[in-house]
Inverse folding.
């Protein structure tokens, strides 16, 4: 596996792949890799000839300095995992290299930054899109693989890619879960054993919403989930919403949809976790 730190060298690698007629699959990450990331790498390997993974803890997307400071960093371990997963190129840009000659742009996010994650994380999605645009600029992937766990991030990137006619194919990949249902996330590393034991309640809450989705009114489906969360007082809920699967706009009724999505964000001690499940009309 090649390791590249300079953005311009990454562009040279990408051009060489193209010259050889190899398609490029790209998995952007912030490191502290887990099985969820490795599944994205496996998918990229299955669909493309060469795979690049980036590890960059992007300061532009952290609105909480404490979260940025404590974000887990474990490059040596990540490197071993990626070698084992058959990654061809690991891109670990320095901030100065990735943002050289670049002033942050204000992207049209289609109003997505005003809902769900948006109000409590001002500037977060602009930060995500700015770095993704820079990474795409250097790597020029054919396809980029994103986990559905960060459903709103995925929707924002799909929106921008669509409206700006980005040539990259954005590939959504299902959430990977621990056996007890907790969605895999780098932030799980920061949970204490007690918090880790409580954390699966988030998934149970989403499952109980799914159990009554489309059979009961939206508010009462939501109430099933809220009841479970109230029974776990160490969880501080930020939101539980049932939303349109494309716009992610929270719903007050099901309308004539056959699909929706339930999304939750909550704090366990100092750690903020998010999760979501798709709801189907059966
Ligand atoms: O999902 C992440 O890890 C990050 O938001 C991403 C897409 C790598 C951008 O920094």
């Amino acid at each position: 596996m090649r390791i590249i730190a300079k953005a311009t060298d990454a562009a040279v690698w990408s051009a060489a792949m193209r010259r050889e007629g190899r398609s490029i699959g790209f998995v952007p990450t912030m490191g502290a890799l887990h099985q969820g990331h490795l599944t994205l790498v496996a998918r990229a390997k299955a669909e493309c000839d060469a795979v690049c993974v980036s590890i960059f803890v992007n300061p532009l997307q952290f609105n909480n300095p404490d979260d940025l400071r404590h974000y887990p960093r474990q490059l040596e371990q990540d490197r071993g995992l990626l070698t084992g997963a058959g990654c061809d190129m690991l891109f670990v840009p320095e901030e100065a290299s990735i943002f050289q000659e670049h002033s942050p742009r204000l992207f049209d996010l289609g109003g997505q930054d005003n809902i769900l994650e948006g109000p409590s994380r001002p500037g977060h999605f602009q930060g995500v899109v700015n770095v993704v645009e820079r990474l795409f600029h250097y790597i020029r992937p054919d396809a980029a693989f994103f986990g559905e766990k960060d459903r709103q991030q995925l929707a924002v990137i799909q929106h921008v890619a669509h409206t700006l006619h980005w040539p990259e194919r954005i590939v959504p990949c299902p959430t990977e879960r621990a056996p007890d249902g907790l969605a895999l996330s780098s932030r799980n590393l920061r949970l204490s054993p007690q918090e880790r034991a409580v954390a699966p309640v988030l998934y149970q809450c989403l499952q109980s919403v799914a159990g009554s989705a489309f059979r009961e009114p939206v508010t009462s489906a939501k109430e099933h989930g809220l009841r479970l969360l109230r029974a776990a007082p160490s969880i501080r809920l930020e939101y539980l919403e049932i939303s349109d699967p494309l716009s992610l706009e929270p719903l007050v009724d099901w309308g004539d949809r056959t699909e929706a999505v339930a999304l939750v964000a909550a704090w366990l001690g100092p750690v903020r976790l998010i999760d979501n499940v798709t709801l189907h009309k059966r």
User: Anything to note?
Assistant: The two ends are 46 Å apart (CA to CA). The pocket of pantoate is lined by residues 28-30, 58, 61, 128, 131-132, 150, 153 (CB under 6 Å). Residues 124-139 form the longest helix (16 residues). Strands lie at 2-4, 24-29, 50-55, 89-91, 143-147, 169-173, 235-243, 259-268, 271-280.
